[in-house]
């Protein structure tokens, strides 16, 4: 492997993916479901989009005590990114979201639906690409400047999740949205209310277990 096989500041403990990776348990029917392009799947990853480390982004360690991800890392724009532009695909382990396989990924912070109807999701916790470093906007800025969007990957001929710059005017003032994402700015999305609700439940459950253990 060459010196550019992984991006700068990549975690050595996490395999870097430059294409989709399927868990062995994913059924043939589930794989085939990802190769069906519905008419409303208009966003695409074009055939000439390069694989490997993405020149549009940089992984940068965060050392700001006020940042929710302080001590970890975030994904930043390496150049100006236009409104609505594709930034990069979200790669991880494509797996079944049905029991018992769903239990393995239930507590992952990197798991996204890929095709909910087919029971397929993608988890970048233990393998992925730069997109796994995208943080939530809460506690960093007033609004997100990017979003996860389901799209069609022309290169592999299947559905994919990817990170896009928010279009001008979407969840942001028109004047700000028209600017896209400036070079050096952190790329931030909304993880969604469901994500945070689930994390609150897990926290309450953990606290309850700790109290019970103390009382015992």
Q: Mind explaining what this structure looks like?
A:
It holds the Pfam family SET. The protein is an alpha/beta fold and 216 residues long. It has one domain: Beta-clip-like, CATH 2.170.270. 17% of the residues lie in helices and 24% in strands. The chain contains 4 helices and 12 strands, in the order βαβββββαβββββαβα. The chain has helices spanning 28-33, 102-105, 174-177, 193-215, and strands spanning 21-22, 44-45, 57-61, 73-77, 86-89, 93-96, 111-115, 120-123, 135-136, 146-153, 158-165, 188-189. Strands 1-6-8-7 form a 4-stranded mixed β-sheet, with no helix packed on it. Strands 2-10-11-5 form a 4-stranded mixed β-sheet, with no helix packed on it. The protein has a two-stranded antiparallel sheet with strand order 3-4. The longest helix is centred in the last third of the chain and has 23 residues, at 193-215.
The CATH superfamily is known as SET domain
Q: Give the overall shape, derived from the CA principal axes.
A: globular
- What is the CATH topology classification name? Beta-clip-like
Query: Which CATH C-level class is it?
Result: Mainly Beta
Domain SET: 55-192
InterPro entries: SET_dom, SET_dom_sf
Protein name: SET domain-containing protein
Keywords:
216 residues, alpha/beta, Beta-clip-like, 4-stranded mixed sheet, 24% strand, disordered C terminus, SET_dom_sf, SET_dom
Could you give a short description of this structure?
The chain has 216 residues and is an alpha/beta fold. The chain is built from 4 helices and 12 strands, in the order βαβββββαβββββαβα.
């Amino acid at each position: 492997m060459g010196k550019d096989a992984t991006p700068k500041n990549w975690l050595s403990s996490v395999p870097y993916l430059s294409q989709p990776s399927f868990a062995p348990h994913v059924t043939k029917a589930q794989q085939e479901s990802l190769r069906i392009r519905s008419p409303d799947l208009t966003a695409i990853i074009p055939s000439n989009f390069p694989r490997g480390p993405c020149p549009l982004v940089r992984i940068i360690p965060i050392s700001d005590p006020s940042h929710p991800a302080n001590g970890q890392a975030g994904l930043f724009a390496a150049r100006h990114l236009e409104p609505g532009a594709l930034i990069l695909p979200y790669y991880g382990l494509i797996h079944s979201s049905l029991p018992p396989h769903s239990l393995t990924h239930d507590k992952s912070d990197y798991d996204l639906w890929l095709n909910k109807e087919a029971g397929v999701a993608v988890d970048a916790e233990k393998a992925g690409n730069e997109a796994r470093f995208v943080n939530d906007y809460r506690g960093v800025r007033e609004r997100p400047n990017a979003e996860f969007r389901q799209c069609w990957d022309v290169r592999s001929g299947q559905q994919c999740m990817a990170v896009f710059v928010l279009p001008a005017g979407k969840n942001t003032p028109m004047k700000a949205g028209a600017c896209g994402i400036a070079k050096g700015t952190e790329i931030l999305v909304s993880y969604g209310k469901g994500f945070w609700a689930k994390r609150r439940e897990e926290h309450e459950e953990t606290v309850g277990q700790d109290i019970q253990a103390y009382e015992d």
